[in-house]
Amino acid sequence: MTEPYPAVRPGTPVEIEYHRAGAETLIYRQWLAHAGSEGIVTVQASTPIPDTKTVDDRPILAPGSPVVWFTFEGAWHDIGAFHLPDGTPTGHYANILTPVRLDPPSSDRWTWSTMDLCLDVWRSPDGAVRVLDEEELQEAERSGAVRDDHARHARDEAIRLVRAARNDEWPPALVGEWPLERAREVLSRAGVDLEAASKREG
Length: 202
Description:
The chain is built from five helices and eleven strands, in the order βββββββββββααααα. By secondary structure, it is an alpha+beta fold. The strands form two sheets. Strands 1-2-3-6-7-8-10 form a seven-stranded mixed beta barrel. It has a two-stranded antiparallel ribbon with strand order 4-5. A hairpin with a 5-residue loop joins strand 7 and strand 8. The protein starts with 12 loop residues before the first strand and ends with a helix.
């Protein structure tokens, strides 16, 4: 079987241009753990957020938390396996976004680009599912920061993911196959020092 991404190997840095509606573009650095036809697995060593993110008053992501990300070519979402800073898993988070543009990789990095479409879908370990940030999408529509067709795609995708999650069809098998421990081990073998990367990014 032909590899879909023959030019990249585990340990390749991935830089993501993350365009946000009505806000500045952010650049996120992650590390490639796996790239196959079923999806791409990357690790964010340390989440650069200023405050702890909560759902129903429970922390799901904190400053410095590691995240395993799953990206699917052509999809209108990606998936983050969220953890607390000590590595405790908290659940799965889908960012609704425009399909990620994967630029041809160079010898030392792989650059991606996407636009955040505000909506998110959260699935907790007990199977509860909810859509987040509808108000943010409504405001982005009012201001013209998100196009009408993108807003429709975002809502349709959120509905599809909620339905699939409630039928135990989401997240896909790839997510369960790549827990944080496995991704860390693969990157360690590839020579990536995630602890050092975490200190730089934290």
